[in-house]
Design brief:
The structure holds two protein chains of two kinds. Chain A is built from seven helices and no strands. Chain A is mainly alpha-helical. The longest helix of chain A is centred in the first third of the chain and has 28 residues, at about 10-35. The radius of gyration of chain A is 19 Å and the shape is globular. By secondary structure, chain B is an all-alpha fold. Chain B is about 85% helix and about 0% strand. The chains are: A mainly alpha, B mainly alpha. At the A-B interface, helix 3, helix 4, helix 5, helix 6 and helix 7 of A face helix 1, helix 2, helix 4 and helix 5 of B.
């Protein structure tokens, strides 16, 4: 199977990585703002926070993020997955602007533009480096060992 | 030791970046070794895919490094402002991951991927500043 080119399903998994991370962080942000500052002497409040819908939703989304991130790393390089899914940073900024009504400075807009350009660069190339050296310790060698 | 000195702050940022990079590289290496999870799930089911992942020592070591990175971040934030730690740690991790992936995972980090890492690194620094 050629793993260097992505199918539509794999692009969808990268989109899930991006969106679940962004939405999960935003849900946690909304939930913790509702709870307010937690003093060190009352850390038990953090356990209670787990029962609030926003925090619970954020945790479920971040579990979804981790599962889809692992799936993506099973067929794409780390140096492809990390920049390709970094659009999540821009999504968080846009959610904070249009949902939470926070202010976005010109520097942050510039940051969003740079991240988008970086994503554009990396997604134009191959996603996966096929192992060339069968004795390579961290990549190809381990692949054979684990698939046996 | 004065934990607000430049060296101490650099050391705290370095500990966050290095442990996060070690975590990412170990998890990526484990997933590459396990193989395509979509195919494993199709042949052995979801439980089989989960068993393949959590049975990997490299994956568990990676999760341990991620936890270390998280607590290093919390420790850093207790001594320094988030506006200093978050942009530095977040952006430097992209570059350190590219270097580690090239040398440890032998990924083909061509000019396009270097440019992407540098653009995202600068973008994250600007977003979090």
């Amino acid at each position: 199977m050629n793993r260097s080119r992505l199918t539509l399903q794999k692009y969808l998994i990268l989109a899930v990585v991006t969106l679940t991370a962004a939405l999960g962080d935003t849900f946690l942000d909304v939930g913790m703002k509702q709870i307010g500052p937690v003093p060190v002497s009352r850390l038990g409040l953090l356990i209670g926070a787990l029962h609030t819908p926003w925090i619970l939703g954020g945790i479920v989304l971040l579990l979804g993020f981790f599962a889809s991130y692992l799936t993506a790393l099973s067929w794409a390089d780390l140096t492809f997955v990390l920049p390709a899914t970094s659009l999540g940073y821009a999504v968080v900024a846009l959610l904070s602007r249009f949902w939470l009504h926070e202010r976005i400075t010109p520097a942050r807009w510039m940051g969003i533009a740079l991240i988008t350009a970086g994503v554009g660069f990396v997604t134009q190339g191959p996603a996966y480096t096929p192992g060339e050296d069968p004795d390579e310790p961290l990549a190809a060698g381990m692949t054979e060992g684990c698939r046996r | 030791m004065n934990l607000s000195s430049g060296w101490a702050v650099a050391l705290m940022i370095a500990s966050v970046v290095l442990s996060a990079t070690a975590g990412d590289v170990l998890i990526a290496s484990a997933m590459r070794g396990i193989g395509d999870l979509d195919e494993i799930r199709a042949s052995r089911g979801l439980a089989g895919a989960i068993r393949a992942v959590v049975g990997s020592g490299r994956f568990l070591a990676g999760v341990g490094c991620m936890a270390l990175s998280f607590f290093s971040l919390l420790f850093s934030l207790s001594h320094e402002d988030v506006s200093m730690i978050a942009p530095a740690a977040g952006s430097l991790t992209f570059v350190s991951n590219a270097v580690a992936a090239k040398w440890l995972l032998h990924e083909n980090v061509d000019r396009r991927r270097w440019l992407a890492a540098v653009f995202v690194c600068c973008g994250v620094a600007l977003l979090k500043a």
